[in-house]
Amino acid sequence: MTQMMKAARQHTFGGPEVIVYEDAPVPELAPGEIRIRVKAASLNPPDWYLRDGYRALPPEWQPEGSFPLILGTDVSGVVDAVAEGVTGFALGEEVYAMVRFPEGMMGQSMGHADYVTAPADQVGRKPATIPHAAAAGAPMSLLTAWQFLIELGHEVLNPFQAEPHVPVPLKGKRVLVNGAAGGVGHLALQVAKWQGAHVIAVASGRHGELLRDLGADEVVDYTQAKVEDLYRDLDLVIDCVGGAPAARFLETLARGGALFIVNPLGFDGHAEASRRGITVSVTQVRSNGAQLDAAASLLGDGTIRVVIDSEFSLSEAAQAHARAAKGHIQGKIVLKIA
């Protein structure tokens, strides 16, 4: 008899209303995997992009989908089962993970459910001192910041560039983080600060107090001032918003500086960057349990903390997607799962 669980699923692409809370089969273990009883999960941009069928991408890049879909890469929970031959994880152990990203985003059962399976090497040990909601908010955003700024951790090229991304030393450098209040931005800010950078955080004014509390040395309200009018000779800009507007940051950077773009789609400033002697680089975040383990102590002792924008129950997943659609997210949107 098939064991069942509750999940947030969709049977077609569309808006938040296509997400339904219903019964689904508990995923079965495959070799090399563990199964996690999910206690909390978070939403990330790939979740709402896939829910909508990636309509912003060129048609040839849009997925066909394999319905029903269960979204959600980021989870925190406890080990429920371990495949034969997998070592290092005990039943009941608290773990967190970014599950099968990017390879599993087109139809496999993911984390917005009572249970999820994950390759063991994608799973990290959850810090005991933080709640599941905070741990669930970390993986994709923190791994993105980590792989851009600390260690790439994989050899897969981003389709937007022909060479591997290479992080740059941050100690003593002037680093600007655009979109600093968002999921990736608020963690990139803290990672850069931990590494000894002087951090300039760019966001709307309502986030100023939070960003200073997270360690920003300077805060710029983009609704009141243009960054390109304020700064010159920066060492690094990490643009967590990206797209075509990222080109404006080239004039803020020193020759020999770098512009890292989390979302490079639409950026066309490569010729100008070359003329100015600026490195432009991108990468695509990939699951990495060892990096989550490396970051766990920083989460555990509060050096890096996850800001929660809002919390919903799993049955309210559609409302969580509606919250994401409103934008101006401060930190992470989290689903708490009973």
Keyphrases for this structure?
2 domains, 338 residues, seven-stranded mixed beta sheet, 9 helices, 22% helix, globular, Quinone Oxidoreductase, Chain A, domain 1, alpha/beta, six-stranded parallel beta sheet, Rossmann fold
Helix content: 10-25%
Task: List low-confidence stretches.
Answer: none
Structural class by sheet pairing and helices: alpha/beta
Task: Identify the CATH class of the largest domain.
Answer: Alpha Beta
Question: How are helices and strands ordered from N to C?
Answer: EEEHEEEEEHHEHEHEHEEHEHEHE
Distance between the termini: 23 Å
Number of spatially distinct domains = 2
CATH architecture of the largest domain: Alpha-Beta Complex
Overall, the morphology is globular
Instruction: Tell me the radius of gyration.
Output: 20 Å
The major β-sheet equals: 7 strands, mixed
Number of strands: 16
At the fold tier of CATH, the topology name of the largest domain is: Quinone Oxidoreductase, Chain A, domain 1
Indicate the mean pLDDT: 95
* Residues in β-strands, percent: 25-35%
* Total count of helical runs of at least 4 residues: 9
**CATH homology group of the largest domain:** Medium-chain alcohol dehydrogenases, catalytic domain
How would you characterize the overall build of this protein?
The protein has 338 residues and is α/β, with parallel strands linked by helices. The protein has 2 domains: 4-139 and 306-336, Medium-chain alcohol dehydrogenases, catalytic domain (Quinone Oxidoreductase, Chain A, domain 1); 157-281, Rossmann fold. The protein is 22% helix and 27% strand. It has 9 helices and 16 strands. The strands form 3 sheets. Strands 3, 5, 6, 7, 8, 15 and 16 form a 7-stranded mixed beta sheet that branches. Strands 11-10-9-12-13-14 form a 6-stranded parallel beta sheet, sandwiched between helices. The longest helix is centred in the middle third of the chain and has 12 residues, at 183-194. It is globular, with a radius of gyration of 20 Å. This is NADPH:quinone reductase. Keywords: Oxidoreductase. InterPro entries: ADH-like_N (IPR013154), ER (IPR020843), GroES-like_sf (IPR011032), NAD(P)-bd_dom_sf (IPR036291), Quin_OxRdtase/zeta-crystal_CS (IPR002364), YIM1/Zinc_Alcohol_DH_Fams (IPR050700).
